[in-house]
């Protein structure tokens, strides 16, 4: 039985230039996950950043709260064909979390509570807008949406914005994550409809 279904939706047209091809606008915030929702308190939460040499820098919740944060508003796009416009968040830029560690790396493998992983080119985390987000619409991020903290990379399909983040491993070579090993596209650009291998 196939894990991938193209029955998520068609490649319909839309009238809003902010909505990528094949997407439709939604006004709620659907909850989709690869498994059960982990229950992680702020006291338990930690983010391990693993450098190319295997050295680990540990961020706890107090460290995240001390880091420079910002409020931002972005559009998000799910591979299941919905887009949600003007979503408001607060978080810390990933480039501020990685600092100088990312200078030699080419890729990152993001790990999460619950075992989920996803892969990204390092440039998408440090040269473009990407955050460790912990508030949504002015409130603490709910666990169903990845709280206490999630990765948010709004220029890619939302499966790349891993919920319940707890690790970023830096690599020279690409290593596919959970959905990528099951036939999803390695990159996931919504404007190019990069949903599955071969798109």
Automatic annotation (TrEMBL):
InterPro entries: OxRdtase_Mopterin-bd_dom, OxRdtase_Mopterin-bd_sf. Pfam families: Oxidored_molyb (PF00174). Coiled coil: none annotated. Residues 1-33 are annotated as: Disordered. It comes from the Bacteria. Residues 35-179 form the Oxidoreductase molybdopterin-binding domain. This is DMSO/TMAO reductase YedYZ molybdopterin-dependent catalytic subunit. It comes from Nocardioides albus.
């Amino acid at each position: 039985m196939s894990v991938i279904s193209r029955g998520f939706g068609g490649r319909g047209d839309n009238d809003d230039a902010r909505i990528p091809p094949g997407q439709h606008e939604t006004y709620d915030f659907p909850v989709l996950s690869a498994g059960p929702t982990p229950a992680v308190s702020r006291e338990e939460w930690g983010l391990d950043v693993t450098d190319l040499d295997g050295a680990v820098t540990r961020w706890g919740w107090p460290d995240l709260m001390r880091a420079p944060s910002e409020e931002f508003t972005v559009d998000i796009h799910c591979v299941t064909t919905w887009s949600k416009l003007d979503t408001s968040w607060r978080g810390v830029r990933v480039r501020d979390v990685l600092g100088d560690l990312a200078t030699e790396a080419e890729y990152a493998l993001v790990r999460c509570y619950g075992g989920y992983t996803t892969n990204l080119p390092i440039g998408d985390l440090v040269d473009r807008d990407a955050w460790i987000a912990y508030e949504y619409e002015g409130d603490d991020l709910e666990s169903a949406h990845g709280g206490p903290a999630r990765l948010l990379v709004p220029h890619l399909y939302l499966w790349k914005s891993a919920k319940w983040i707890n690790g970023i491993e830096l690599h020279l070579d690409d290593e596919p994550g959970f959905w990528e090993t099951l036939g999803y596209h390695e990159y996931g650009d919504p404007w190019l409809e990069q949903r599955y291998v071969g798109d």
